[in-house]
Amino acid sequence: MEHGRNDLHRIFTDVLKNAAPDQGPILAWPIVAGPGVANRTQPIDFISGVLRVRVPDKEWKAQLEALAGDYLKAFAMLPEVKKKVERIEFIVGK
Question: What is the fold, at CATH topology level, of the domain defined by 2-92?
Answer without folding.
Answer: GMP Synthetase; Chain A, domain 3 (3.30.300)
